[in-house]
Design goal:
The protein is built from no helices and eleven strands. The strands form two sheets. Strands 2, 4, 5, 6, 9, 10 and 11 form a seven-stranded mixed sheet that branches. The chain is mainly beta and 124 residues long.
Length: 124
Amino acid sequence: VQLQASGGGLVQAGGSLRLSCAASRRTVSNYGMGWFRQAAGKEREFVSAISRSGGNTLYADSVKGRFTISRDNTKNMVYLQMHSLKPEDTATYYCAADQASKWDSVSRRGFDYWGQGTQVTVSS
């Protein structure tokens, strides 16, 4: 599967962005999906994940209540809606796919495929 993330940009603190991840070559319903981010000088960190069914989700504590992950298997798309953005959310965001994921399982580990990143910058 190939993944293409988009939707990043520059936004003021308190603003919103929606990231999109388009999958190609394989149908996205075959994969558990996730979003990760990496800030400058820091390690990549887990942000959110969603099961193949879309029925189960997982969030990092730092984004819980502000970010929402979703997927549209009919369109081969995964989304990350981000609200109440903070300067500390500034990072390059990556979508990822887990080929071993079961239909309703969700995990923050075990991702096999990664897209290129999309930059999110939140100004204070």
